[in-house]
Design brief:
Blueprint: H1 20-27, H2 32-42, H3 52-60, E1 64-68, E2 73-75, E3 85-102, E4 105-114, E5 119-120, H4 122-127, E6 135-149, H5 150-162, H6 175-184, H7 189-205, E7 215-222, E8 226-233, E9 238-246, H8 247-253, H9 256-268, E10 277-282, E11 286-291, H10 299-305, H11 308-311, H12 318-336, E12 339-340, E13 349-351, E14 357-359, E15 366-367, E16 372-373, H13 384-387, E17 392-393, H14 396-411, H15 424-435, H16 448-457, H17 471-476, H18 479-483, H19 488-492
Length: about 550
């Protein structure tokens, strides 16, 4: 590996060195250490209602393991908590006790013992108390705890507590009742898992069609990981978009967790501005997503085929504001669920039969509790913090992408140049340099009313970005929408006239069919480059929930 810099000591010093393997083990999300964290969280009963993707994200946010010596006090009753952490016991035991006044004397009352997967520290965090309500001491053999920042875990625990028939008592209940319930394990972990299963099954039951009842109508598109076809349930008179992925290709790429994450994310979504998942299927060689069919074409097709929509609208900027509002409504729904899309672009905004845009493709989406560190997305729409090492970002990247999308549909091109380079990484760096060149250069026909809107979305510093602090409401409150007198009430009721919609009844000739049409073949063709034969591993079972 080439050396990127030379370091010279200016004076005598002591340097601590860690080898690459140990460094990677500390930060890698693949490896025994991370798998150990994830396995521990699977045993924590209060987390059982969460989706696997949410527990995975929580494991990504672990601070690390902390060791306590036998008898060492971890939390002191009544003392200010300087480190607002949540603790999950990895090994060893803990002891919970309560200091009380009785007959003028201070007594220490034993409450319960704690063992692996037990947790503590959340009650005061959820209540907003500055001090711990009880004493927590390491047991006779010591104790090792996996720790998390309080702000991070409170996001998920509040979600668990707000659920109907929550597995945990309210943090505002009686203190002794709280610990008695914890000692009993709240409810069984199976109860939480069953609720998840019932919820998923309920979603599946709303769509009664089976895979063998579907026939292919035409091809809608093909990507790097699978194909999407328009399919028909002739018996019920319904049409859907069916996304087919090769199990063998997924296994080779090591993306089983990502595919399951996409399924889980889609199962949570219920918005008129996001493509809905009706159900999933699987066969020996494929997994399938049966999706809502939005057949008005993508927003990028509208920009290409009907540019007059954005230059002849009255008042000027109304069309761009409409589609920006559609994406904003989708992002509001996703961000409320701690989902960051990370690939907002015109290609991923599909028009329905009325002309309203719906965000699609959750392939890059993930749950994000605080921030994540992944270089992912489409270069032209990637925010500066995603490109810059260590790629730390949060939901603000979606607001940046909305700015790029709005600029593009109103001007016909993206705002940043790639300097004409073809190498993917060099192109990405060229775009990053372009982002730093100064004020945005708007073409002469760009609506004046939208310039400030786009400029505020395309702020280099994430916290300065429109939407970063106040979310979707900040975006809707922008002066652009006030100037245009945009009727958000009619918009959300989908009564607002749309800038454009196609007049048709599923004309098959409109769609491309680059890989041949076999109405009975719903999966990928065996000769396709993204199809790899799959041999099931009984010990794996990654596709069990499809």
């Amino acid at each position: 590996m080439p050396m990127h810099a030379e370091f010279t000591a200016k004076e005598d010093c002591t340097m601590y060195v860690i080898d690459r393997n140990h460094f990677s083990a500390c930060f890698n999300r693949r490896g025994k250490r991370f798998d150990d964290f994830l396995s521990l969280l699977e045993e924590v009963q209060i987390l059982s209602p969460l989706l696997a993707s949410e527990r995975f994200e929580l494991a990504c946010n672990a601070i690390g393991l902390v060791e306590f010596q036998p008898g060492e006090r971890v939390l002191h009753q009544g003392l200010m908590r300087t480190a607002k952490l949540w603790y999950v016991i990895h090994s060893g035991t803990g002891v919970v006790s309560l200091d009380q006044e009785k007959n003028g004397k201070k007594e220490n009352q034993f409450l319960t013992d704690l063992s692996r997967a037990a947790h503590f520290g959340e009650r005061s965090l959820l209540r907003g108390d500055a001090a711990a309500p009880v004493n927590i001491d390491a047991g006779p053999d010591g104790m090792v705890c996996l720790t998390f920042w309080g702000d991070t875990i409170c996001v998920l625990l509040r979600k668990v507590l707000e659920q109907e028939n929550s597995v945990a008592p309210s943090p505002f209940c009686d203190l002794k009742e709280w610990w008695v319930r914890k000692a009993r394990g709240f409810k069984s972990r199976d109860d939480g898992l069953n609720r998840m299963t019932i919820s998923w099954d309920r979603m599946q039951s709303n769509c009664q069609v089976e895979l063998d009842e579907l026939t292919k109508v035409c091809a809608l598109g093909k990507g790097a990981y699978g194909q999407v076809c328009l399919v028909e349930d002739a018996a019920r008179g319904q049409r859907y978009a069916l996304k087919a992925l090769s199990k063998g290709y997924i296994a080779k790429q090591g993306t089983q967790r990502l595919v399951n994450g996409e399924r889980e994310i889609l199962s949570m979504i219920d918005s008129s501005f996001v493509i809905r998942l009706h159900r999933t299927f699987k066969d020996d060689q494929h997994v399938y997503f049966l999706l809502e069919a939005a057949l008005g074409g993508s927003l990028v097709q509208v920009v290409k085929d009907h540019p007059e929509i954005f230059v002849q609208d009255m008042p000027r900027g109304q069309s761009g504001a409409f589609y920006a509002a559609c994406v904003t409504a989708a992002l509001e729904h996703l961000h409320e669920r701690r989902i960051v899309h990370r690939d907002i672009k015109p290609e991923n905004a599909l028009l329905d039969e009325h002309g309203y845009a719906k965000v699609c493709d959750m392939g890059f989406a993930r749950f994000v509790l605080s921030k994540t560190n992944t270089l992912v997305g489409t270069p032209d729409y990637m925010a500066p913090e995603v490109i810059d090492f260590p790629h730390t970002h949060n939901s603000s990247v979606d607001w940046w992408a909305l700015g790029v999308l709005t600029f593009e549909i109103l001007s016909g091109h993206t705002p940043f140049t790639d300097e004409g380079v073809s190498d993917p990484m060099e192109r990405l760096l060229a775009i990053r340099r372009s982002q730093e060149l100064g004020p945005l250069q708007f073409p002469f026909h760009f609506p004046q009313v939208a310039k400030g809107f786009v400029a505020e979305l395309l702020q280099i510093r994430p916290h300065d970005r429109l939407g970063a602090r106040g979310g979707a409401q900040d975006v809707r409150d922008h002066a652009m929408y006030r100037t245009l007198a945009f009727d958000f009430k009619a918009f959300h009721e989908q009564k607002l006239p749309t800038p454009f919609h196609r007049q048709w009844s599923y004309p098959e000739h409109f769609f491309t069919d680059d890989f041949g049409l076999d109405r009975g073949q719903l999966g990928l063709d065996p000769s396709d480059s993204i199809f790899i034969p799959y041999t099931a591993d009984p010990a794996d079972g990654w596709d069990a929930r499809f």
